[in-house]
Amino acid sequence: MTTTRPAPVDAATGFVRLRVEAVDPLTADAVAVTFAVPDEHREAFRFAPGQHLTLRRVVDGQDLRRTYSVCSSAAGGPLRVAVKRLDGGAFSTWVADALRPGDELEVLPPAGRFGPRPDPARARRYGLVAAGSGITPVLSIAATVLDVEPASEVVLVYGNRTSADVMFLEELADLKDRHPERLQVLHVLSREEQESELLSGRIDRARLERLLTTLVPVDDVDEWYLCGPFGMVTEGRSTLLDAGVEASRVHVELFHADPPPPRQRATGPAGDAATVTVSLHGRSTTLAVERDGESILDRVLATRSDAPYACKGGVCGTCRARVVEGAVSMDVNYALEPDELAAGVVLTCQARPTTGTVRLEYL
Ligand SMILES: Cc1cc2nc3c(=O)[nH]c(=O)nc-3n(C[C@H](O)[C@H](O)[C@H](O)COP(=O)(O)OP(=O)(O)OC[C@H]3O[C@@H](n4cnc5c(N)ncnc54)[C@H](O)[C@@H]3O)c2cc1C
Ligand code: FES
């Protein structure tokens, strides 16, 4: 359902206030949130499978931003995310406990490059591996591919502790009913015995290796998409690469990574700062940025509140910009693909200048 009421845009940050249409429980600790998209923002909020939204909430003057993957089919599905409550989590507990239909939330249009761009002429087999809330972008990929590519097939390996923890149990069963020949779902449960010993346990290297030689032969799969906890995703990726899958066919999405150890402060001369110019929303700003001080993003935010960001941890990719002059170094990068790095794209939340002059264009 849509509304025609204009949704205000925050000109300084690009956030749009969207009305929450529905909040539906998925499990004891996860809810799906559906947004109403007014006609004038329909184009901006058109999403591709695997993309995510940044949601914002200001609490006691603190700007809380979190990223949530769209979980519905990009072929006509609603704008819907699913949030799993994290104990002590500032944003997810509020969404799970307090958000109600009719509330408004500030939302950035969809972003991210995790999923495929479906093509009706294509016949492919997609291998999807997810654990816990990592199902959200993966469900969108599965639903979209099955809707748009009539000759493609999907095999989903989905790990959870127990069947009560499985998000989208009904949606997955419905999807299977609609595409019985083209969708295979393998539920792997770590704290609940299943008939098959192969599907009882965690999705670790040993189990994935066995799955690749039995139920999901690696040569049958054209593209792999992995999303879940850091350990599962990194181990899953290396298992696939060791099994001979080309790196360009393995796509990963992380929701969280522990921050790296604190940086050592500069030992260089005081005032060892570079001149950094950023182009953003059609306007350029030049600032001095210390080579070993705050990140370029934090320096930019001091004067440009419209600089995009969410996690500040190198995970979500919201802060990406292209280096058009000079060079920067990044502490970590969990968001950019090799082709983006080759094109000079960097995460400004992780970037510090390594040359005296740097020019960046936000994407
Ligand atoms: C690209 C992307 C897509 C995402 N999609 C989804 C999604 O579809 N559904 C969803 O529920 N979440 C998703 N997330 C995670 C989400 O953005 C938040 O990180 C999560 O909801 C926790 O926020 P919080 O404010 O509740 O916790 P915080 O208050 O930020 O953190 C509380 C504590 O938990 C740790 N922590 C934070 N996030 C995680 C995590 N994901 N796993 C383990 N520990 C964590 C923190 O270090 C901190 O110690 C996504 C993240 C990214 C980067
Ligand atoms: S803000 Fe998330 S990667 Fe920079």
TrEMBL record:
Keywords, ordered alphabetically: 2Fe-2S, FAD, Flavoprotein, Iron, Iron-sulfur, Metal-binding, Oxidoreductase
One Pfam assignment: FAD_binding_6
Requisite cofactors: FAD
Domain 2Fe-2S ferredoxin-type, residue spans: 274-363
FAD-binding FR-type domain sequence ranges: 13-117
Enzyme class: oxidoreductase
GO molecular function: 2 iron, 2 sulfur cluster binding; flavin adenine dinucleotide binding; metal ion binding; phenylacetyl-CoA 1,2-epoxidase activity
EC number assigned by the record: 1.14.13.149
GO biological process: phenylacetate catabolic process
PANTHER family: 1,2-PHENYLACETYL-COA EPOXIDASE, SUBUNIT E, NADH OXIDOREDUCTASE HCR
Protein name per the record: 1,2-phenylacetyl-CoA epoxidase, subunit E
Lineage: Bacteria, Bacillati, Actinomycetota, Actinomycetes, Frankiales
